[in-house]
Amino acid sequence: MSTKFIDGNVAMAEAAVAAGCRLFAGFPITPQSPMPEYLSGRLPEVGGSFIQAESEVVSANILLGASCGGLRCMTSTSGPGFSLMAEGISFIIGCEAPCVFIDVARPGPGMGGIGGCSQDYLYAVKGLGAGGGRAFVISPSTIQEAVNIVYESFDIADRYRTPVVVLTDKLLAATTEVVELPPLRELSTLPDKSSWLITKRDSMKFEDKRICQSMLLPVSSQEEFCIKLADKYKAWEENEIRYEEFMLEDAEVVLFAYGSVGRIVREAVRQLRKEGIKAGLFRPITLFPFPRKQIGSLNYGRIKKAICVEMAIPGQMLEDVERSVEGRIEVDYYGRGGGMLVTPEEVVCQVKHQMEGSGD
Predict the structure, then answer these.
(1) What is the DSSP letter of 328?
(2) Whole-angstrom Cα distance, residue 245 to residue 242?
(3) What backbone phi and psi angles, to 5 degrees, belong to 151?
(4) Cβ neighbours of residue 227 under 8 Å, at least 6 residues apart?
(5) Given this model, what pLDDT does residue 115 score?
(6) Within a 10 A sphere around the Cβ of 245, how many other Cβ atoms?
């Protein structure tokens, strides 16, 4: 482990290198551009390759080829670039090619702005390309957590042969903090992929050839693959759920937030507690799989108020929170959009206002 004072973009890039990433293909777009800039010099130092692609469309397809050739690979982008990758991501899911995408979200739709936001939730979690395929989506709240998550994401990608999306925003990527960086992985210790890689084999017979494709015929084969993917997603829900509960033991007000907003809401909870309001935070860390059962098992006999806080208008994670509580309590919403940041003080005022409005 080494301790450094660095910004989130560079910290996530170094965590990827430490995890064994040896190819990056990407394209500059604010606010993630410091990440490829750093990797353009760092990857060659460890025998890796940096490719500035012609576009984000090309970036995703380079990852497909690199992954099927055995490399741990990744890209980083922001909202507009992430949108352009949709077709490539769909193919990657269809080919079960493990790789990592870091999305430093920015306000939208369209080109939007460059401020902090939570406005890529629906796209990352529910709309990655044609055909209904899903990626493993995970969102850190601090730079240290981002380092740990990026480092682990390559293992998750290999374990399930899936793309992993690390969903962040400018608030995290452009912040500078002291973090502990993990050691470099020995490449010889990485998972064995020889059973499915597309590599040159002089002794391979024609009937043993391997093809990277996402079109399966006959139709029954495509259905079998859809069932296989559904089973994979179920395994994620059973084995890979991550979440944080903060001061929920006796909470009468539960606040739901993810990513950078979770960090802000954590401070709001502390302030509310000082004012005698028993507030607590539930922070989903994996957004897909979503901690639906864990939210559903909260003590709704004690909880009087539930509020979902997001930097998105209208709320996006709100839909999944409402589905998870299954009508046990009404979920209110508070959010800012377009790059305007939620503050702890605003959350405190909102909680008080809603409690007064409900007569609590």
Answers:
(1) S
(2) 10
(3) -60, -40
(4) none
(5) 84
(6) 15
CB atoms within 10 A of CB 38: 21
Cβ neighbors of 274 (< 8 A, separation 6 or more) are none
As given in the structure block, the two tokens for residue 47 are 């025998």
Name the 3-class secondary structure at 274. Answer: helix
The structure tokens listed for 332 are 């209110």
Q: How far apart are the first and last CA of the chain?
A: 49
Cis amide prior to 36 (ω within 30 degrees)? no
Q: What is the pLDDT of residue 223?
A: 93
Q: For each successive 10 residues of the chain (360 residues), what is the average pLDDT?
A: 93 98 96 96 98 96 96 96 95 96 92 87 92 95 98 98 97 95 96 86 60 81 93 97 98 98 98 97 98 97 97 96 97 94 96 77
User: Which of 293, 168, 313, 309 shows the shortest CA–CA distance to 243?
Assistant: 293
Instruction: Give the CA-trace dihedral at 305, 337, 165, 124, to 10 degrees.
Output: 90
CA distance 57 to 127: 16
Could you identify the residue written with the tokens 């352009």?
84
Distance of CA 230 to the CA centre of its chain: 19
Coil, helix or strand at residue 359: coil
Residue 165's H or E segment, with its range, is strand 163-169
Instruction: Report the amino acid identity of residue 36.
Output: P
Residue 207 corresponds to which tokens in the numbers above? Answer: 């009937």
